[in-house]
């Protein structure tokens, strides 16, 4: 009898997973149609890093947009369908970003049956925090990282050669950076999950803070191809702040309750 119940339970979980995946796909498809209609406007936003870069200074206004003014940094397509596929890629990634709150919500709905009643109240904060962190990472990359990276790569030892950028390669470069930073900004949520699962403890995270800071600067050096330490520090600081935020959030959420835990419902 236990064997049958186990099979029914597994079947129920698979049905629930299929339902959540279908709802997420519907959201992505609808968002894709909307984004594809506006793909040209999104494309114009993505080529902004080619036209200018951020400049930091110790005097007000501290951050300014410096126009590169280089007409040679235009885009070309090298295959008949490359421009069309570029619009498909832009639309798909934009659709994933737009529908990410609903996707995170469906993820929560799938795992929530195994949670305690008190833990289920975190559904709305989970969806809001994960969505906001992902969007913040994407914006941080687009506004700060991409202008620096593209300007450096196009001007580093290129006095005797002329850049001819493929639109497909350029869009792939930008979208990978944006998605990567969106994922990196989920670090606090990942740390909370690891501590709640008992895989690591907050004391372990705090004790190894120096290694986390070192890894943050290594990641910044790899992700930001600018040679000076100032710009690398700008990239590393958000990762360090997110790590600290993850530790504090874990301490607050994992604080022992006086009441006994309720059975799963």
Q: Poorly predicted ranges (pLDDT <50, ≥5 residues)?
A: 1-8
Number of helices: 12
Instruction: Please give the radius of gyration in angstroms.
Output: 23 Å
Strand arrangement in the largest pleated sheet = 1-2
**Helix/strand order, N-terminal first:** HHHEEEHHHHEHHHHH
Strand content: 5-15%
The general outline is flat
What kind of sheet is the major sheet?
A: 2 strands, antiparallel
Helix content: over 70%
What structural class do helix, strand and pairing data support? mainly alpha
Number of strands: 4
Report how far apart the termini are. Answer: 22 Å
What's the pLDDT, averaged over the residues? 76
Please, could you describe this protein's structure?
- The protein has twelve helices and four strands, in the order H-H-H-E-E-E-H-H-H-H-E-H-H-H-H-H.
- By secondary structure, the chain is mainly alpha-helical.
- It has a domain at 2-185.
- A two-stranded antiparallel sheet has the order 1-2. A two-stranded parallel ribbon has the order 3-4.
- Helix 1 (2-37) runs antiparallel to helix 5 and helix 2 packs across helix 4 (82-98).
- The longest helix is centred in the first third of the chain and has 36 residues, at 2-37.
- The protein is flat and about 65 Å long.
- It starts with a helix and ends in a 12-residue tail after the last helix.
């Amino acid at each position: 009898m236990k064997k049958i119940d186990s099979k029914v339970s597994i079947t129920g979980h698979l049905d629930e997973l299929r339902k959540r995946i279908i709802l997420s796909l519907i959201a992505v498809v609808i968002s894709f149609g909307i984004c594809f209609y506006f793909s040209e406007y999104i494309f114009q936003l993505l080529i902004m890093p080619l036209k200018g870069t951020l400049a930091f200074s110790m005097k007000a206004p501290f951050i300014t947009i410096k126009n590169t003014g280089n007409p040679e940094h235009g885009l070309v397509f090298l295959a008949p369908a490359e421009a069309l596929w570029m619009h498909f890629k832009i639309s798909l990634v934009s659709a994933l970003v737009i529908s990410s709150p609903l996707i995170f919500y469906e993820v929560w709905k799938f795992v929530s049956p195994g949670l305690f009643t008190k833990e289920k109240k975190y559904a709305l904060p989970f969806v809001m925090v994960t969505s906001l962190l992902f969007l913040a990472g994407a914006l941080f990359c687009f506004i700060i990282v991409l202008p620096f990276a593209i300007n450096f790569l196009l001007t580093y030892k290129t006095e005797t050669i002329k850049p001819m950028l493929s639109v497909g390669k350029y869009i792939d470069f930008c979208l990978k950076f944006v998605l990567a930073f969106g994922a990196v900004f989920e670090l606090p949520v990942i740390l909370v999950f690891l501590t709640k699962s008992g895989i690591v403890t907050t004391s372990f995270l705090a004790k190894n803070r120096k290694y986390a800071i070192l890894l943050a600067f290594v990641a910044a050096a790899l992700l930001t191809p600018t040679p000076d330490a100032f710009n690398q520090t700008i990239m590393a600081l958000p990762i360090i702040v997110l790590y600290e935020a993850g530790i504090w959030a874990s301490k607050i959420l994992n604080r022992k309750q006086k009441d006994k835990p309720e059975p799963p419902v």
